[in-house]
Amino acid sequence: MKHKIWSDKDSVFYKKLFSLVLPIAFQQFMLAAVSASDALMLGFVNQDSLSSVSLAGQITFVFNLFMGGLTMGTSILAAQYYGKGDMISIEKIFAYVIKVSFLISATFFLAALFIPKTLMCIFTNEPQLIASGIVYLRVVSLSYLFTGISQIYLCILKNTGCAVKSMVIGSTAVIINIFLNAALIYGLMFFPEMGIAGAALATSISKLIEMGWAYMESLREKRARLRIKYCFKTEKNLVQDYWKYTMPMLGDYLVWGCGFTTYSVIMGHLGSDAVAANSIANIVKNLIVSFCTGLGNGGGIIVGNELGMGNLKQAKEYGSRLCKLAVISGVLSGVVLTALIPVIVKVTALSLQATGYLKWMLILCACYMVGKSINMTTIAGIFPAGGDSGFGLICDAVTMWVFAVPVGFFAAFVWNLPVVIVFLIINLDEIVKLPAAILHYRKYGWLKNLTR
Question: What is the pLDDT of residues 282-293, one digit of tens each?
Fold first, then answer.
């Protein structure tokens, strides 16, 4: 009897996977599209506007690292408890994380509002970039309060069978953001022309809408809700479980993210041309890598569901399939990015020097897409799904802070190497940690870590 090439189990897996991956990937793409629209629209104003907002945006990036750590910890538990059908525990975790998230959001709000100059001086010493960045940070500060709440709501929706709805809410907010960007930067229709401040205000308004919509969605029947009674009463075991998974993930996000932010500090002191080219390269990279991000996050949810139900063999099989898909995804992403280089160079209004930097930066980004895809799927997806979130922290700490950051610093300021070579060095971290990620995956230690 001949075996089926495509079994019913295959159909179930891929249907479930892509029902998660596509919404998450689209949402990631739309989020990256906000930065792309900022860069494109402000680039037509002038290159300094693009560069200053890119550097000021690093504060938002660091804030999003905290949100990423909180939501990853929430996802790990929510996926496992949803697999068990335990909605009460999900709502208890929901209430607890909202409190933590609000405290972090309030801290960033106050810092961006009252000490924006101090924050900008970390990234650059050019007065014109600092002045423009101050304007942006003060206006965008409100968005941190809204984002801190909306991201937890969307995370809970995504992990309780409502990934498409989470995508719709997040993506619609992005579309509103892009529309308001154009309207408020250039003063279209009846809107005032605000330039950089307009880009910041567009972000704050869209995040307010996202928060309100996510809250209204949670009130529908059979949705996990934020219940006041759980906000004032925390269950010790759930909180311990949450921080057991979240602390390594949060530590990993901060170690990786602060390292990535340090790359911007290094590039920020190499001149406005280097800043502008690096900004565009990172935006394009984030757009292209969105499917890889969706694969890692969606795959992590599927593996987490299986582990929550105690199906270790199935989780192992799914992990193997995800790794193969990660290689394919990485190759295709690299090919797409390479094909788009002529278009990107043509539509970006950069100086001749910055354009030269950008071409080579995009080529280098395309070359490392496979490594990025595999690392996203394993370190940020499969491993945390089983509670093995400590590996990413160790891996990123070594590759970024022992290798990329110090070598990049010496390359830029001691050896005075060309800008493109500095960019290459600080982007080698994904390649350096790839062998360790593959080796760790094959040990299958991530299968043994489950909630109590």
Answer: 888 888 888 888
